[in-house]
Structures are given as C-alpha cells and as structure tokens.
Amino acid sequence: MKEINTPILYKAKCKPFLRWTGSKNWLIKDGLTKYLPNNFNNYHECFLGGGSVFFSIDKNGEAYLYDINNDLIETYIEIRDNVELLIKTLKLLKNTEEEFYRIRKARTNKSHTKAAKFIYLNKCSFNGIYRVNSKGIYNVPYGKRKNVDIVSEDNLRLVSKALQNVTIKAIDFKETLENIKKDDLVFLDPPYTIAHENNGFIEYNQKLFSWDDQERLRDFIQAINNKGAYFILTNASHHSILDLYKGMGKIFIKSRYSQVGGRNKTRGMYNELIICNTI
User: Fold this and answer.
1) How many Å apart are CA 181 and CA 198, to the nearest integer?
2) How many CA atoms lie within 13 A of 210 on its CB side?
3) How do strand 185-188 and strand 268-276 relate by DSSP bridges?
4) Can you tell me whether residue 167 is helix, strand or coil?
5) Which of 9, 37, 63, 75 could disulfide-pair with 115, CB 3.0 to 4.6 Å?
6) Helix-strand-coil percent breakdown of the chain, rounded to 5?
7) Whole-angstrom distance, CA of residue 228 vs CA of residue 186
8) Residues 13-49: b if buried by 16+ CB within 10 A, e if exposed
9) Tens-place pLDDT, residues 209-233
C-alpha cells in the first residue's frame, strides 16, 4: 500500500463518488464551516464512508482517511493510484438487472476490477446501501434506477487529484490515535447504534458498531481532547448519547430530512447531534 505524507498543495473541487447511507451532505449544506476551528494542522477522518466532509473543506496540512471497510478503502486507494484504468473498466459495465446480479456474484482479485465492482454496485443498488451477509458477501438488491452515471469520469479524476498525497488505511479508529497531534482536526461520523430519539437499537448497525464501540469512541475522543487536538463528532440525538458525552464539548441538535429507508415509515425529519470542541 502506498503511503505518502507530504503537505497537500492542491484541493480539487470534486463531489463524493459514492451514494452513501448516512452521508453528511446535509451537514455541509447546513453550514459545516461554522463548526470548524479557525486554523488547524492535519486532518483525520476515522469513519470515511462517502467522504463528503473530506471533499468539502480546504486543508493545508496532511490528511489521513480511515475506515474498517476494506473494500471501501481499497476503492479509494485505486482511485488515488490508478484512476484511468478504473475509468476504462467502469465504462464496460451496463446498468441492467441481469448485469447487476452477474457482477454482484462475480469474484475478482484485481484491484481495479474490485474497485469498479464496488462503485458499480453502489450506484446501481437499492438506496446505495452497503450490506453484507454473515459470510461477508454483498447482498443488496438491484435498485431499478434508469438514469445512472456509472462512470462520472470527470469527477473521478478530480477525486483522484484530491486524494494525492493522502494516507488511506483500513483500520479501527482507535489505531489512528498515534498519528493525531496537537491542533489537528478529527472528524468522526460513526455508524449510529441508537435509533434517533427512540429507545431501541438499530438492528443492523448494532452488529457493526455496538454500544461497547460507542464507549470506546468516547474514550478515544477524550484522548483527542487530552492531546490538544480538535474534534467534530456526529451521532444520533438520543438521551444515552447525550449522557455519554456530557461535559466533553459543545453539543448542538440539528434537524434533517432522511430518505434512507425503503418504506415511508422510515423516512422523515430526524434530529442529529453535533458534538465538538472547536468553537
């Protein structure tokens, strides 16, 4: 895996290349800049996902992007290091139901075809959900959307430029602590363990990110604080999260509209928390 740790001198104006459940595009539109510190050194993002926050802010120092989803991270690395071959591979794929299930079933060991498969399934699947079964096999159904730009080649080239000189790794958030220094900025958008303002756990995400993980994350953020670094955390608006982070920074409650669910009862207005020590 290539790692380059030199200052970022070029920030491409690009958009996220994935449809990602839990995307923070709403936060960017709402005004992410008001939560940013006036100045910061290096940038760290521990739950990368679709990367909307990384792509939206200007950075002068080094950048470090992390996620435990190995397929996701390998896709980012391939865009950074081999974007033209990836684009060429994506151009061969068609948005049909037959093609979707053929590609979903296919196995490949080549980096560029694995990345192309990841992007294709993300764009053509139902609601852009990333879900695997107990064997680690992607099992989201076909999305039946007619107008899908599978390639988005101009944007992919801009994404590739934005990722140059960026360290990208598939690791747990706690393993990133040693790289975080005083006056760095850390953005954290973990999977939401608790349903918004309800009493129950989110059935799927609690398997990905349990309450024990939430407590580990709280301790991790305390360690960030102790280093004199900045953090911005998003999480579900729930009394248990409020109790967990009491006294650890300023807490803001923001309302947003969610279209994640496949049924109307799972869509609507939700409150989310923004917890930070930046302002």
Assistant:
1) 37
2) 2
3) unpaired
4) strand
5) 75
6) 40, 15, 45
7) 11
8) ebebbbbbbbbbbbbbeeebeebbbeebbbbbbbbbb
9) 888 999 999 999 999 999 999 999 9
